[in-house]
Every structure is written in structure tokens, then in C-alpha cells.
Amino acid sequence: MADWTKVPDTLSAASVGAQEQDQRLRQQSTTCEALAGDLEAARQEIQSLRALLQEAQAQAAVQVRAIETRAGARVREAEARAEAANLRAESAEDWLKRIEQASRDLLPNDRRAAA
Fold it and tell me: Measured between alpha carbons, how far is 39 from 35 in angstroms, rounded to an integer?
């Protein structure tokens, strides 16, 4: 009969152990739910940040294209001004040569040889 007297103690200990385990599982479940909520919030924040990043990249691309367009136009204008300046310089050199030749032609023959 001694064996039967320990059964209620064993059952009581098992019941207490089951209650403690049930309490631990509830705490773990609560913790898991909280972590799942935190994870979902972090996922949504990441998604929002990615959307903001894409928007910022798109705006930056538009600004870069606009800057490149303006820079290209300025370069073309500068090249056109440089070409025009070169043409004016060549024309001025041509006129100077003509003026020099005309002034030589006006000199008497003996002075032309010296010039």
C-alpha cells in the first residue's frame, strides 16, 4: 500500500509541473505574439523606407537629367561662341594680312624690297 500513497503526491507534483509548463508556454506565446507584432511593424517600416528610397532615387534621376541637359546646352553654347571667336580671329588675321600687303603695295619700289 505504500506505493499507492505516493500516487497522489506524484499526481499533485505532475499537476503543478503541468501548470508551470502551461504558464511558461503562455508567457512564450505572449512573447512570440509581441515579437511577431514588432516584426510586422519593422517589415512595414522597411517597406515604407524602400518606397521613400525609390521616390528619392526617381527625383534624383530627374534632377540629374535636368542638370545634364542644362550642362549640355551650356557646353554647346560655349563651343559655338568659341567657334565664332575663332572665325572672327581668322577673319581679323586675314584683314591684317590684306592691310599689310596693301601698305607694302603703296610703298615705293626701293622701300618694298627693304620691307
Answer: 6
Is 115:104 a contact under the CB 8 Å cutoff? yes
Give the predicted TM-score (pTM) of the model: 0.54
Query: What gap in Å lies between CA 9 and CA 15, rounded to an integer?
Result: 10
Q: Is the pLDDT of residue 6 over 90?
A: no
DSSP 115: -
pLDDT in tens, 80-108: 999 999 999 999 999 999 999 999 888 88
Phi and psi torsions of 54, nearest 5° = -65, -40
Helix H or strand E encompassing 62: helix 2-106
Helix (H) / strand (E) element for 104: namely helix 2-106
82 contacts 74 by C-beta, under 8 angstroms = no
Euclidean distance between CA atoms 65 and 38, whole angstroms: 40
